[in-house]
């Protein structure tokens, strides 16, 4: 068809998806930093949280490998997203997390030993402490994506009560291929709810690579079908991730409706300790991903800005290792709960059949082993 021919088709809608990054993988500052990042103390604070989270994560894996913890999902490589989330959210917002959002949970008051208890199968791990923001958060969801529509209920309650609060629903890349995600995105816009959908795109859904999971060019664009703004951020740049989250939270709080943020990152560990990614992932891909490590990136950035030294690093490494060890000791100090506990958080009134099973386990010998 020549340029002058009339066309039966016209463009009725066009979209673009933006990506935000302030600091590149080498730690070079690419654009003027947001105000919070011009304060060296804020940079050090974010760095400290990421390093401590990694130390605790490493300890959890070590405990699992030595038979002292159940299956564990590591957040290695994704520390920036949790850190940015925990700092960006207000205390009375509600976090509806996926697993691997540990840093956000720690910042909101979940004791790290509770996270260890969770992976040891202890029901008490989800009793978050009174007086902390985590108290009204959800425990993280192991089933993929089923928690995302629940964020709609939370955000709808905020709207009904006219409260300036925001629900943050965190999920992985795999969850965005599920109906739950699309249903939530669609309803969030229809009801103009204060909810932020935060996707940690770590490139793998267990053993399924991103490219085989969805043909979408970005995951952020999955927002567009629901009429919601969707954007990408470099999820290994903690400054950028915090910036876009704070912007989305402020918009949602101001009544401007929901947002989808795709934080692009990489899962540097196996899916869980029950997985061995060497069976399906090329070694050079992993090596390449390590060059974009969020901790290394912020450290290089701070060193360039003159607010981090070798002595600072050594001191923090020692503090983080001591904190991880203290978490392990606090976990060991908890007496195992009785086996009937598995029944006690499921129903307000236990069905008869389960009641009989509960009575049966109560006659069993008490647990003899430590964690
Ligand atoms: Mg994933």
TrEMBL record:
UniProt key word Oxidoreductase: yes
Entry's transmembrane regions: none
Cofactor(s) it depends on: thiamine diphosphate
Enzyme class: oxidoreductase
Biological process according to GO: branched-chain amino acid catabolic process
Keyword terms of this UniProt record: Oxidoreductase, Pyruvate, Thiamine pyrophosphate
EC number: 1.2.4.1
Listed NCBIfam families: PDH_E1_alph_x (TIGR03181)
Protein name: Pyruvate dehydrogenase E1 component subunit alpha
Organism: Panacagrimonas perspica
